[in-house]
Amino acid sequence: MNLELVPAQQAFRDEVRSFIAQRLPAEIRERLKAGHPPRKQDVVTWQRILNERGWAAPHWPARYGGAELGQAERLILMDELYRAPAPLPQVFNITMLGPVLMKFGTPEQCEYFLPKLANLDIWFCQGFSEPGSGSDLASLRTKARREGDHYVVNGQKIWTTTAHWADWVFALVRTDPDARKQEGISFLLIDLKSPGITIRPIVSIDGEHHLNEVFFDDVRVPAANLVGQENRGWDCAKFLLGNERTGIANVGLCRERLEHARDLALQTREAGVPLIESPQLQAELASLDAEIRALEITNWRFLLTPSLQQAQPAFASILKLKGVELQQEVNALLARLAGPAGLERRPADDVAHGPLTPRYFYSRAASIYGGTSEVQKDILAKSIVG
User: Fold this and answer.
1) What is the CATH architecture assignment of 245-385?
2) pTM check: above 0.90
3) Which fold has domain 7-89?
4) CA pair distance 236, 106, nearest whole angstrom
5) Is 68 a catalytic residue?
6) pLDDT digits (tens, 9 = 90+) for 256-277
């Protein structure tokens, strides 16, 4: 497949690169390039800059603050953000909740929340996973009982990413305990400042605080915060998860991390010789480069060929699997290049020395979120058998 951009697409890529070069704060770029995860304020600052151009929510309609970009332009924008590197727009606000509100929300909900989601005036997290549920989302047990014009919520969520940074959570709750598994579930927007909510940190293998447990004890939620119909929250969840799993190849991220590996190999010496001169390392870099290029072509084919998306839904599983494998391989290479120094714990403000080995550890989680690798393989197997 020829990936030469048409003139309009090349002009858009140039426009994005120029915008990033001029507006992305250097301190944020250097932190991310060194391997540090973005801080909350990094994400807020950059998303508000992007929102000036409608690029915080590039696929949203203009009336909601978006840019109405086509699939190719969205892919170009995402690729350039990864390769800068720059923080991505907050995924829970932009990719997940925003489209759900446009499809299922009331006009009042859209008018109030969407501008705030785009400008990151409100930070949402996702309250889906629960203890003991694994990948079986429909087995959730958090309950919401209707009392007048409020719901009273009791239960627990787990693995809640950025809940410690968030202002609100969108949560799936069981409103009809007697209904069938996928039925009797509702989709609620819950203010995390509400009385009865407790957030506890979960520190992951990289030593960082990304994840949390969230407890709800008689939390009162206005009925106006129900999205869609009561007991039809599964419709919202399926729609949301379909959006969550777009752009899962992360080609730009793989490419940027591989470029950083090359830079590190140029700077690092062994017995006075730069590591980049090792024939074995050169072969590994070339192999990864070819694999990323193949993933990029496959990603473009899938995203820009609607008939292919309909005929071969397993394509998304291929992208998820291969994208995860390459992310992990490149992060493993960076950890090896960093050597023993990559294991050192340094202050958070030590921008020059990123946590390359801890980032490799955390990359293992990519095999789980967005649909486990085992589930993707099951989908592929059924597709082949079918």
Assistant:
1) Up-down Bundle (1.20)
2) no
3) Butyryl-Coa Dehydrogenase, subunit A; domain 1 (1.10.540)
4) 13
5) no
6) 999 999 999 999 998 899 999 9
